[in-house]
Write a structure and sequence with these properties.
This protein is an alpha+beta fold. The protein folds into two domains: about 50-110; about 120-355, Carbonic Anhydrase II (Roll), CATH 3.10.200. It contains six helices and 15 strands. The strands form two sheets. Strands 2, 3, 4, 5, 6, 7, 9, 10, 11, 12, 13, 14 and 15 form a 13-stranded mixed beta sheet that branches. The protein has a two-stranded parallel sheet with strand order 1-8. The longest helix is centred in the N-terminal third of the chain and has 107 residues, at about 1-110.
């Protein structure tokens, strides 16, 4: 019996150890396989969560930066608005003074063109708008020698090469084209513009020279005459200012001597305004042909306006024969303007032609 047990027990032990070994190996293999299978899942999940976290963090950082930039822009805008309000408060009183002062000036004293020639000169209007009204005169600090320095738009008064008036001499005698006048009785107004007596006319009066037509706009007076002829001056001169369709100017100068009374001049004096810069509309008409001399011979040259802005390119037509006014008529103008003539300008070698 003992012998049998000793034989059987080792056999059982051997049999028992045989199946247990595969089980352990299978368990170990399964565990390894399970671990191998679980590790990739865990790594992929962790990678996914890591990427999502980074993206969310980047989005939060971007939103924060955008918020900071928006806040900076809002702060900058608020500062700009605050500065505008401060400036508006600082300059408001001055602006209010200007806004109320302008209507007051228009009510008390209507705006008029002070330059005798400026009614037909756009340059003068631009200068006045850009730089304000520069005070010019015929003597003192605002006199002719200072005109070019009073306003940049008056520079031609200093530097121009074709300035008027001139001493008309050494003219070339030629057969000039006839100077024809188409003047008719017209309505008119008279204004004392602070520099001369000026007569503004209704439309419809013309001259024609060298095939070109100019319409009469206004005429005014200077004492003594601004022009001289071979060194000789005259008591007064009337400047008849014309303009063509292109805006070019032609001035007919009618020289005036002391003598008998002149009907047209008397009609102007009859309508003299009581205040400067206030036009008087005449109730009658004016026959402009009455101011012209009998003879129509003339001198001609290229020149300028004789008052600021002294614009050049003006065609001058100076009648060779003078008209007369009475001493009484001369005295009336002298009381208002004892002297309102620009000095003679240098000829600068320009060509002067005169009728044969």
């Amino acid at each position: 019996m003992l012998l049998l047990l000793s034989i059987y027990l080792p056999a059982m032990a051997n049999d028992a150890s045989a199946p247990s070994k595969p089980i352990k190996q299978a368990s170990s293999k399964d565990e390894a396989s399970a671990a191998t299978k679980e590790e990739p899942k865990s790594s992929s999940k962790e990678s996914k969560y890591s990427k999502e976290g980074k993206a969310a963090e980047a989005a939060r950082a971007k939103d924060a930066l955008a918020a900071d930039e928006l806040a900076a822009k809002i702060a900058e805008k608020l500062a700009f608005i605050r500065k505008e309000k401060e400036d508006a408060g600082k300059y408001a009183p001055r602006a209010m003074i200007r806004s109320y002062a302008a209507p007051t000036r228009r009510e008390v004293k209507p705006k008029v063109i002070s330059d005798a020639h400026a009614a037909i000169s756009s340059t003068a209007g631009v200068g006045a708008a850009a730089h304000g009204t520069a005070h010019w005169s015929y003597e003192g600090e605002g006199g002719p020698l200072m005109w070019g320095k009073l306003n940049p738009d008056y520079a031609k008064c200093d530097i121009g090469e074709r300035q008027s008036p001139i001493d008309i001499r050494d003219g070339i005698r030629v057969d000039l084209d006839p100077l024809t006048f188409d003047y008719k009785p017209s309505r008119f107004s008279v204004i004392d513009n602070g520099h001369t007596i000026q007569v503004n006319l209704s439309a419809g009066n013309y001259i024609n020279v060298s095939g070109r037509t100019y319409e009469l706009v206004q005429f005014h007076f200077h004492k003594p005459s601004e022009e001289r002829v071979n060194g000789k001056g005259f008591e007064m001169v009337a400047h008849m200012v014309h303009k063509d369709g292109d805006g070019k100017l032609a001035v007919v100068a009618v020289l005036i001597e002391r003598g008998k009374a002149q009907a047209l001049v008397q009609s102007v004096w009859n309508n003299l305004p009581l205040e400067k810069n206030q036009a008087v509309q005449a109730l009658s008409t004016m026959d402009l042909s009455q101011i012209l001399p009998t003879r129509r011979d003339y001198y001609t040259y290229m020149g300028s306006l004789t008052t600021p802005p002294c614009s050049e390119g003006v065609l001058w037509l100076v009648m060779k024969e003078a008209i007369e006014i009475s001493p009484e008529q001369l005295a009336i103008f002298s009381r208002l303007y004892p002297m309102n003539a620009r000095p003679i300008q240098k000829p600068s070698g320009r060509l002067i032609k005169e009728s044969n």
